[in-house]
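REQUEST
  id: r-88c1
  op: predict_structure
  target: Protein kinase domain-containing protein
  payload:
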Amino acid sequence: MLFGNTLQLLVGFLFVTSINANSDTERIAKFNRNMNRPWIIKDAIGNPVCPGSHQNEIVYKKNLTKKLGAIKLLSNVGKNSEGVYTFPPGVDYEINGEKVPGDSLVVKLVHMDSDYDSCEAEILHRIGSLRDHGKLWKEANFGSDAEDSPSSSPSGSNSGSDSGSDSVEWLDYGVLVMNKAKGKSLSQYEWWKQLSEPQKKELVEKTLVDIKNKVYDFLKTQQLLYADLNLDNILVETETDSVHGIHSFKEAHLVDFGFPGIFTVRKIPEPEEFDSWFYEQFNFYSADLRKAQNWREFSGTQLVADSESSGAGKRLSNLNHDAGTGGTGQAKKQRQRRRGKLRMIED
Ligand SMILES: *[C@@H]1O[C@H](CO)[C@@H](O)[C@H](O)[C@H]1NC(C)=O
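RESPONSE
  id: r-88c1
  status: 200
  body:
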């Protein structure tokens, strides 16, 4: 029964985070219809079934409080980074005796209040992006103060003036240390607001083609469907022609493999069926942007012309939190290692 209540809460959570207050029931119904395709597996009340669930005790076992407490992690301000932290410049993080540059990593904190919170670790492991995991005992800040460090020590955290510092609560958080993806979500670029409407549209369309291929590849190789197609979860690398001030699309990367965004599937849908699901899903998540820009719904056909020039052929190996180190040789090696890992898991 308790379990059932938790699930109800999670269903509520899905809709609260996916839909803004001005959304209508028709939109929700459309979303539910889109997720109700026979090839998508859901439990009895419509929640995703994700791999690696019910493993919180194992995944979030190692106590990283001391190790992370020694590092003043920075809160990564931005829409797509709730609960995601970065390392201060120049600080390394030790993984298996090896010093890894902190600027190639991000740290995500999870609440461990759902049996599905361990899924993200499993998925990150599968795509070769999980570098460390454990738990962290820290002051709860309930997401209100973005300046707060997750590793603030009990002694040195009395500078806050607003909230009642006498009633500070301490909680155990699950920790996922993962490779940092390159790029930013489009709206995080300072120049995004200055772009003309056609320029914006072109960037979104090219991003969409690349992401569509990556989501389909992920589906085919892992039998997992990435469904949380919010633009905030899509980091875009761009190239800037500084002479003309033109920003062009380079490559897109999905982030946030947490519950409830990943679904398992019964079978791999045909490309046409997948396309129809994909655009319907993206149209749902991009409703506010489309409204603001006066764009029609996205569909497969209007994008065909773009697919040649957009680097859309890039494969699954790029669907991950690629280390932000930029070295192509290293990236290649990492990709090879990752592929080896994928094979090992599939065998
Ligand atoms: C984890 O370590 C910290 C400090 O090293 C300690 O205060 C805390 O009680 C530990 N948590 C558990 C659950 O052992």
